[in-house]
Write a structure and sequence with these properties.
Radius of gyration: 20 Å
Shape: elongated
Structural class: mainly alpha
Distance between the termini: 36 Å
Number of strands: 0
Strand content: under 5%
C-alpha cells in the first residue's frame, strides 16, 4: 500500500491531473513543500483552537444577538467555522434546544440552519 501511495504522489506531482496541466491547472504539490503550506497550517490550527476555546456565553452571543456580525467577520471561512463549532461544542449546542432563555434557543436554531 505504501508503494501505491508513493507512486500516486509522484505521478500527481510530476504530471498533475486534468486536461489543462500544461497551462498551470491541476498541478499538485505536497503541502509541506509549498511555500505557504506550513504558514497555512499554523493559521488554520490557531483558528480552530480559538473557536474551540470559546466559552458558552461567547458562543451564545456570537450565534444569537451577534449572528450577522459573526457571519460577516468569518465570511470567507464560514463553513469551516460552523464545522469547527459543531465539532468542539456539539454537546453544549444541543442543550440549547430546550433552553428557557431565548438567546441560547436562537443560537441553536441559527447553528442548525447554518450546518445545513
Amino acid at each position: 500500500m505504501q508503494k501505491v501511495v508513493y507512486c500516486l504522489t509522484q505521478a500527481l506531482e510530476w504530471l498533475g491531473a486534468g486536461a489543462k496541466t500544461a497551462t498551470g491547472y491541476g498541478g499538485f504539490i505536497k503541502q509541506d513543500r509549498h511555500p505557504l503550506g506550513k504558514q497555512w497550517l499554523a493559521i488554520n490550527q490557531s483558528f480552530d483552537e480559538e473557536l474551540a476555546a470559546m466559552t458558552e456565553a461567547q458562543l451564545i452571543m456570537a450565534f444569537s444577538k451577534d449572528f450577522n456580525a459573526t457571519k460577516a467577520h468569518f465570511e470567507q471561512n464560514w463553513q469551516q467555522v460552523i464545522n469547527v463549532i459543531w465539532k468542539c461544542h456539539e454537546e453544549t449546542i444541543n442543550r440549547w434546544e430546550h433552553s428557557k432563555d431565548k438567546n441560547p434557543k436562537k443560537a441553536y436554531k441559527k447553528l442548525i440552519r447554518a450546518r445545513g
